[in-house]
């Protein structure tokens, strides 16, 4: 492994940033939770179950955004062979998988009372499940080889090809006749929901994004340290 | 908040079971992920420190 494979400056900076992100996440959650559970009004159709949306929608956003970020890192690692890009991609995968899973579970818990079903094989839900499998595939593949670099390269290739699923998820509600509702927030005419509900949603989304950034930095340091340990012969083979 | 207010808050208009389950699942899984992320980082740091100390003593 190259001598500069341990990104010392990045890690040094990230340790400080992680502390600030932890504080900001706690503050954002402390403000967002009362809005999500109490201050925002029930929806006229969904009643109180709209409160599930305040965790469901940010989970979905993170699941999608994390995948694009991971694919960008994978692409950088394939072209320029930057170790830091590998560490970032490997750090993001389990986090993205967790938020995608949470999106599916909370969606299911909303679907049961509102649609009368836990699950439907419609385009939005199926493509979201494919996203979860892409994350799991990346994680399995990146650890499937004794040669760390080969595993990471193979997984990076899968990850980049899998980006095709992202527009499919985004436009699934327009291309196919889905049970899932269409875009509510990012519309040309502006979001079609009450301001108090939008406040609750955006505050929760802020808290989720802060937590996501925190987790990525923590796990990137772990990946970098483990790579250093491998190069010193202390962890398996390299 | 009076007890009646609190009861109606937890009932969530009859959808309490679904809403609280959703929040509980999110909290538990996110807490587990955070704990695992922090403990893995601590383990990796500890191993690297050990190696560095051994290297200096040699």
From TrEMBL, chain A:
Main location: membrane
Keyword Nuclease: no
Keyword Membrane: yes
Entry GO CC: plasma membrane
GO molecular function: heme binding; heme transmembrane transporter activity
Residue ranges annotated for the Cytochrome c assembly protein domain, each copy included: 17-180
Subcellular location: Cell inner membrane; Membrane
GO biological process: cytochrome complex assembly
Keywords: Cell inner membrane, Cell membrane, Cytochrome c-type biogenesis, Membrane, Transmembrane, Transmembrane helix, Transport
InterPro entries for the chain: Cyt_c_assembly (IPR002541), Cyt_c_biogenesis_CcmC (IPR003557), Cyt_c_biogenesis_CcsA/CcmC (IPR045062)
Signal sequence interval, chain numbering: none
Transmembrane residue ranges: 17-39, 59-80, 87-111, 123-142, 154-173, 198-218
Membrane topology: Multi-pass membrane protein
Protein family according to the UniProt entry: Belongs to the CcmC/CycZ/HelC family.
NCBIfam families: ccmC (TIGR01191)
Function: Required for the export of heme to the periplasm for the biogenesis of c-type cytochromes.
Protein name (database record): Heme exporter protein C
Organism name: Phaeovibrio sulfidiphilus
Taxonomic classification: Bacteria, Pseudomonadati, Pseudomonadota, Alphaproteobacteria, Rhodospirillales
UniProtKB/TrEMBL annotation, chain B:
Pfam families: CcmD (PF04995)
InterPro entries listed in its UniProt record: Haem_export_protD_CcmD, Heme_exporter_D
Keyword field contains RNA-binding: no
Record's bilayer topology term: Single-pass membrane protein
One of the record's GO cellular component terms: plasma membrane
One annotated GO biological process: cytochrome complex assembly
Signal peptide positions (record): none
Location within or outside the cell: Cell inner membrane
Residue intervals passing through the bilayer: 12-35
Keywords noted in UniProt: Cell inner membrane, Cell membrane, Cytochrome c-type biogenesis, Membrane, Transmembrane, Transmembrane helix, Transport
PANTHER family found in the cross-reference section: HEME EXPORTER PROTEIN D (PTHR37531:SF1)
Role this protein plays: Required for the export of heme to the periplasm for the biogenesis of c-type cytochromes.
Family designation: Belongs to the CcmD/CycX/HelD family.
Protein name in the entry: Heme exporter protein D
Source organism of this protein record: Phaeovibrio sulfidiphilus
């Amino acid at each position: 492994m190259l001598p500069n494979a341990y990104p010392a400056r990045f890690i040094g900076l990230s340790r400080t940033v992680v502390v600030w992100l932890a504080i900001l996440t706690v503050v954002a959650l402390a403000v967002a939770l009362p809005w999500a559970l109490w201050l925002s009004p029930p929806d006229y159709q969904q009643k109180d179950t709209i409160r599930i949306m305040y965790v469901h929608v940010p989970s979905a956003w993170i699941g999608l955004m994390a995948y694009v970020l991971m694919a960008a890192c994978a692409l950088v690692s394939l072209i320029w062979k930057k170790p830091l890009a590998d560490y970032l991609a490997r750090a993001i995968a389990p986090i993205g998988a967790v938020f995608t899973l949470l999106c599916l579970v909370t969606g299911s818990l909303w679907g049961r009372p509102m649609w009368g079903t836990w699950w439907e094989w419609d385009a939005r839900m199926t493509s979201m499940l494919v996203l979860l499998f892409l994350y799991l595939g990346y994680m399995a593949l990146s650890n499937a080889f004794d040669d760390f670099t080969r595993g990471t390269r193979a997984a990076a290739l899968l990850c980049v090809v899998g980006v095709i699923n992202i527009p499919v998820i985004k436009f699934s509600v327009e291309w196919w006749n889905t049970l899932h509702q269409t875009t509510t927030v990012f519309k040309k005419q502006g979001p079609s929901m009450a301001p108090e509900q939008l406040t609750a949603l955006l505050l929760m989304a802020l808290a989720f994004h802060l937590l996501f950034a925190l987790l990525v930095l923590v796990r990137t340091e772990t990946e970098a340290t483990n790579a250093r340990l491998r190069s010193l012969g202390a962890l398996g083979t390299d | 908040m009076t007890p009646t207010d609190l009861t109606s808050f937890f009932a969530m208009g009859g959808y309490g079971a679904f809403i609280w389950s959703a929040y509980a699942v999110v909290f538990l899984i996110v807490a587990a992920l955070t704990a695992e992320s922090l403990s893995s980082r601590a383990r990796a740091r500890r191993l690297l420190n050990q190696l560095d100390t051994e290297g200096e003593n040699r």
